[in-house]
Amino acid sequence: MDSRSGAPPLSGLPATSGHAGIWRFSVPPVEHAVPHVRHAVRDLLRRQQAPLTADRLYGVLLILSELVTNSVRHAALLTTEIGVEVGFDAHWVRLSVEDGHPYRPRALDAAPDQHHTSGRGLLLVKATALEAGGDCGVEATATGGKVVWAALPVDRA
User: Fold this and answer.
1) How far apart are alpha carbons 24 and 56 in whole angstroms?
2) CA angle 88, 153, 123 (to 5 degrees)
3) What confidence score (pLDDT) does residue 31 get?
4) Which one of 49, 62, 117, 119 is CB 3.0 to 4.6 Å from 107, fit for a cystine?
5) Between 54-75 and 120-131, two packed helices, what is the crossing angle to 10 degrees?
6) What count of Cα atoms within 13 Å lies in the side-chain half-sphere of residue 4?
C-alpha cells in the first residue's frame, strides 16, 4: 500500500519506461474540463497500451469524470487549477484529482448501497472501484486542499 494514501503502490517506473508510468497535468475548474480530461486520459491509456479491457477502461473514465466534475462544481471558488494524475503499472491503475478546497467528502465513507440525496457520484466511484477489486479515498494536501483517488487492478484486454 502507498504509505501516503492507503492506495496500492505503483511500481515507481518513470513515464519513459514503456507502457507503465505516471502522468500529471492540470486543467481550469470549468465544466468543459471534464470531457477534455476524459478524452485526454482515454487517448493516453490507449497510446500507452494500458492492459485494460473495454469494461475496465469505461470504469476508469467514469471515475475520472466524477472526480473532475466534483472539483469543478464544489471547489472552483478556492481552486485556480485542478490537478489530475494518472498512473499505471502491470498491476494497478490509479487516478487522483487534487483541488484547493479543504472539504473532504463523506460519501466515500458511506456504503454504496445506502440511499443518499447527494454524493451519489462519489458512491458510484466507490462502487466501481470496489467491484473491480480496487479502493478509493481522500486525503488532505499540505496546502489545505484535498486529493481524491481511486485505484483499480488492471486486467488483460
Assistant:
1) 21
2) 105
3) 95
4) 119
5) 150
6) 11
Classified by CATH at the fold level, domain 22-153 comes out as Heat Shock Protein 90 (3.30.565)
Q: At what angle do helices 33-47 and 54-75 cross, to 10 degrees?
A: 150
Residue numbers of the chain with a pLDDT score lower than 50 = 1-18, 157
Domain boundaries, given as residue ranges, for the chain:
22-153
Shortest CA distance to 59 belongs to which of 2, 156, 127? 127
Residue 111 burial (CB count, 10 A): 9
State the cell numbers at 3: 504509505
What is the structure's pLDDT at 76?
Answer: 87
